[in-house]
Design a protein that fits this description.
The chain is built from 5 helices and 9 strands, in the order H-E-E-E-E-E-H-E-H-E-E-E-H-H. It has helices at 9-15, 76-87, 110-117, 156-161, 163-178, and strands spanning 20-21, 26-29, 37-40, 54-56, 62-66, 97-100, 121-125, 141-144, 149-153. It has a 6-stranded mixed sheet, covered by helices on one side. Strand 5, helix 2 and strand 6 (97-100) form a beta-alpha-beta unit. The longest helix has 16 residues, at 163-178.
Length: 179
């Protein structure tokens, strides 16, 4: 017998009825009524019906989009800076949504992002707007759409390397979030 290896939680749900824990972020839990449901481990919010792996709460309408291939979301240093930054504006990791487009399960499609998250405010942290087929948006500038406003800025690593970028980001970000 060969080992079945998959990272697709929906496939596991279809094949298994027991509780399964993976080394990744998702786990499959059997419900007492026999209806299996995919629930995420702490800090992940993803279900079988959802096509994105993200952390936080998408219902608040505040979405951060990043692309960190080496980390689930942020590097440890960037996460600390992110938490402090949003904390200064009375936000937490629990009341914003963060999606990493470097995760192979996350579609790199702006229309699908809009449909799934239904955000009102989107911050691109080091993600070029053109990679999402958006019009050009300068750094530390925003574009107001019919449904959401998109703020384009640098990644935290870029801001760590250049204090001026950090200052420019902070001044515009405060305005963006408070409006």
């Amino acid at each position: 017998m060969s080992n079945l290896v998959t990272h697709n939680a929906a496939a596991l749900q279809a094949l298994m009825s027991e509780t399964i824990f993976t080394s990744g972020a998702e786990a499959l839990f059997s419900q007492p009524n026999g209806a299996d449901e995919i629930l995420a481990l702490p800090q992940e919010t993803s279900t079988a019906a959802e096509e994105f792996v993200y952390t936080g709460d998408k219902s608040t309408g505040i979405l951060f989009i990043l692309r960190y291939p080496s980390y689930p979301y942020f590097s440890p240093q960037a996460e600390e800076a992110f938490v402090k930054t949003i904390g200064a504006l009375k936000l937490t990791l629990a009341n914003v949504a963060v999606v990493n487009l470097a995760n192979a399960q996350n579609p790199n499609d702006f229309k699908r992002i809009m449909t799934f998250f239904e955000p009102k405010k989107i911050t691109l942290l080091g993600v070029e707007p053109s990679s999402l087929n958006l019009p050009a948006i300068g750094h530390n500038a925003y574009m107001k759409g019919r449904i959401a406003t998109v703020f384009n800025t640098f990644s935290f690593e870029e801001m760590f390397a250049d204090v001026e970028k950090k200052k420019l980001f902070w001044n515009e970000f405060k305005t963006f979030i408070s409006t």
